[in-house]
Model the fold of this input.
Amino acid sequence: MNLKYRLTGLSFLQFFVWGIWLISLGGYMFANFNNPVDPELGSKVGNTYGTMGWASLFMPALMGILADKYIRAEIVLGICHIIGGAGLYYASTVTNAGDMYWAIFFVSCFYMPTIGLSNTVSYSLLSKSNLDVQKSFAPIRVWGTVGFIVAEWAVDLLGWTQNNSQFYFAAVAGVCTGLYCFTLPRVEVSSSTEKKSFATRLGLDAFQLFKSPMMAKFFLFAMFLGAALQITNMFGNPFLGDFGKVPEYADSFAVKHSNILISLSQISETLFILAIPFFLKRFGIKQVMLISMIAWVLRFGLFGVGNPGSGLSLLILSMIVYGMAFDFFNISGSLFVDREAKPGIRASAQGLFMLMTNGLGAILGGIFAGRIVDHFTDAAGSKDWPNIWFSFAGYALVIAVLFLLVFKYKHNPKEMQTVTH
Done:
């Protein structure tokens, strides 16, 4: 079979597994672990999502070392998916939030490394076949987002968003993905005899970038904005589900098919990726990152004023804005890091960017978002969702204002022209 088709299948399966449970996990926990009412369940949901951040701090680097020097990357990738599938099966059996925390932590320890490993396998095999990696990989990677969306729709239409069938489904998908990885062409381990320190292998050399005040500020903002990235994944589904308690909205599309509504966010993401070159060339990296932060304010604020009835258009607009909020910071930030880092540490610098956003940022986001939800939850378990979302919007607005005032970076249109072509 054509290599590009095989790698497209890998990309689809890679994110299909994640899409099955990531969006619906929060709603599942609120639906199944809140009887009797748990006044701290918001924090427990946030902390459970935060396990992805803890896992991202060390497991991708360790699995990367294993794949670089000892076991072929496609084998490590397959093993991680199969072990993660076993963890998802265990998640289907747990009956309380405490056990779910450890189940998802275990799953995350083996799933989070697969994101980088799947890229490594694709890059290596494309290069081995003398194909242009940058040109070939983009249309392959977009099928990962398609896989995520298909998974969301499948769980929604099968009625599994609030029962443990989603974890059985994800477990089977994980094992199948692992077996598929074993069928891929070989990715040989590195034969280099160059000796590197353990710190270098973990990508810690990139921490020298903190010596630059501008880079130190950038990574600090990356961490604080990273705290916002998973908030709607954590609480978007429970938020929409709570409208089901209101007779006026109980049979609405947003309540009955919350996953499908939320999937508009991922569809928007694929579309805004195409707009990034124009925005970078026209406004520059700093302004594009600032636009992202304002988009986060709108993402949360529109949730605060929207509803499944007359306010459905506001919820849909929030989903559309998500693509700009997510893509504009992650991609422009990655380009900024690539430009400012020296050639010898560029890969490590990208790892540091991911660590600050998806690692430390995700941990902080899980902790503080959960506490905000608990703060606006009464003794009967009812949540003041407008104030919850306005709190998150206020947080994003403060980050945007501080970024505008503190982060100094001059736009050079000529440099942007080389980046976007």
Notes: Confidence is low (pLDDT under 50) at residues 416-421. The chain is about 75% helix and 0% strand. Residues 295 and 321 are 6 Å apart (CA to CA).
